[in-house]
Specification:
With 172 residues, the chain is mainly β. It has one domain (20-167). It is 0% helix and 37% strand. Strands 1, 3, 6, 7, 8 and 10 form a six-stranded antiparallel sheet that branches. Strands 2-9-4-5 form a four-stranded antiparallel sheet, with no helix packed on it.
Length: 172
Amino acid sequence: MAHSVHPRDVLTPLLSNGTTTDMSLADGTVETPDIFKITAVGSPYLLTRVDIYMQDGSIKPTNFLGANALTNGILIRVRDSDSTVRHLYTDGFAIKNHNHFGLLAGIDVELDSGAGDDVIVVRWTLSKAHHNLPLELDAGASFEFVFQDDISSMGITSILAQVQGSIHGSKR
């Protein structure tokens, strides 16, 4: 029998640092990273995909969008409720330019350029990058994008990351 998800249990939130969902405003450092995340509340969350939308005036192939490559980069990780890092995607290699998103398995990258801002859409299927299963977050665990650079002044138009999944075992 196929698993079905009740509409009330569908998850499609944007990752947030608690202040904003626009990651182009990240102002992290290695010592004090800016962390955009989703944390499971109550029942476990089952995450299946992450869609990353990046928009900038003139995207260059070897840079981070239209800006220079990042110095320290972005880490993508899963952290348990006790703050232990359970999994570090890309084996700890930091994403320093937008081409590095290709290091994540099960990814589709689309670039749309022309008049106005250029747009990159990254569709990342989590089950293809971690044990061939969707990512399960127990209550209190989080899926995180860890910014170790201050990109807030780079003039990037917008970066958003939306997770897709469901609340597993919800009794709502």
